[in-house]
Structures are given as structure tokens and as C-alpha cells.
Amino acid sequence: MTIVIDRKHEHFVGEVSGIDCRQAVTKEDGQLLNEALDQFGVLIFRKQAFTDLEQITFSKIFGEIELAKGGNVTKDKDRRLDVQMADVSNLDKDGNLLGRSDRRRMFNLGNRLWHSDSSYRVIPAKCSLLSCRSVASSGGDTEFAFMPAAYDALDQDTKMEIEELVTEHSLLYSRGQLGFTEFEDEERKAFAPVRQRLVRTNEFTGRKSIFLSSHIGSIIGWEIPEARDLIRELMEHATSQPFVYRHSWSVGDLVVWDNRQCMHRVRRFDDASEPRDMRRTTIAGTAKTVPQSN
Fold first, then answer.
1. Is the pTM of this model over 0.85?
2. Three-state SS for 177?
3. What is the C-alpha to C-alpha distance for residues 250 and 245, in angstroms, rounded to an integer?
4. What pLDDT is attached to residue 275?
């Protein structure tokens, strides 16, 4: 079959048909999908009943897998999935629901904030692939916001103001918004802030976007209150309805999104009472956006 991509939103999101992601992907199809990701920002694949190994194998057409270390408070001994997969479910290693007050559950509530995966790493991620293995009876949708369209809609004065700005990203900042502040010394070291450009350019399309995330806590050279006020204004603009797509999950869905061009968040569901099994592979980026501080 021939790959077909249907646009699902005015600005972004393509639904892909004509491919079984569980089978070997040709070099030509892999290139087409990478180019489609640059163009659409979000790609949806239906009825992909992956095993973990099949998901890992398919993910590699987009680049090198980023190991699921350094981005959570789950200890290695408590890991449920292979280190090549990020566990964004509400289950422990035995498949049981995390307790309501479980520290891992409290930390994972940060996924309900608008963010870009791994923007807190020196080299931020290229893209993420999320596979739905089970769904909640209600809620648990994922929203995506397209940053190139949000950038294009800014007035010229704002574009000039933010062009050269550099921000600091950290999991300490995003979790702090929810009152999660009790970190171990080792975690504080692992989550030390990193610097990222606020405006990025897609090398394939040439379009600029705002590199936003709840992980942002400061702007280099700005006072904290003023910096956070600007980020708040930009976040409100970038996540307004014209730039947002909401995905309602079905078992077997695979959604791939470009972290360089999109933010996302999961919507509330009763995660203390019913399972939602979602497994993510993340593709590493290839370069820093700015030099880092010493």
C-alpha cells in the first residue's frame, strides 16, 4: 500500500494510513515520515497493536532512542519497562495502580502541564512516540499545541523582543508549580537547569516556533517576576484554541509528535482508580540550542 496522510487540523496534525508500523519500514517510507513530521508536527497511526520491541524498532526510523533516565523519580529497581521506554502510565512494576499518595504519581501529575519532552536536557528531544495499550473509561485525552502557528500569530514587536532570548528549563520548575518540591540531593543535581533558545527554526521547513514548556523557570538576564510574566503570556497565547488539537485515545493508537515544534499535556482522568497504560519512546535531539553555562 501507499502511505497517505490526511490533515486533521487547520495548522498541523496528519493521520497516516497505508502502513503497518509493526513491519519493516523501507528507507523511502522512513524518509517520507520524517519529512511529514517536520511538516505536520503530529502524526497519528491507528490500529498498531505493538509489542514493546516492535515499538522500539519502529521508533528508530526517526533517530536514536533517548534512554528513559534522568527524567523521573522512579528508581531503577522499580522500573516496569525497558530503559528504552518511558512509562507514562499509572502502574507500578507489578501492574498495580500507584497509590494516591505515591511519590511517583505525584511527580507524574506534572504531565498535565503544557510541556515539551526533555526540554530540560542539554540536548532536547527530537520527537516522542506514544503507544496506547489501555484507556481510561473517561478523560485522559492528550492535547497538542503547534508552536510555529503560534509564533506566526505574534505581533512584530513581540517577535523582535523574544528573538534572542534564552530560557532555563528544569523539572524542578515544572513540578514546583504543583507544589512538588521535596527532591533528594541526587535528584536536584540531575534536574539542574539547562539553557534553551526561546525561538527555534525548523531546518526542513524554515519556520520559526516558540520553544515553550512548563519546565521554564527563568529568562537569562531578566528578573524572575518579569520573566515568568512573559512566559505566562506566551503560554496563554500558544495554547489558545486555534493552535490546539485534542486526541481521544483508542487502544492501538500511536501518536508521534515533534518536541521541537509542539507542546502537549494529558487531561485529567481518575488515575487513582483505573489503569491507563501508555508507553513512550523518545528520539534524542542532535544539537544544543545554545551553549550551556558552566
1. yes
2. helix
3. 16
4. 96
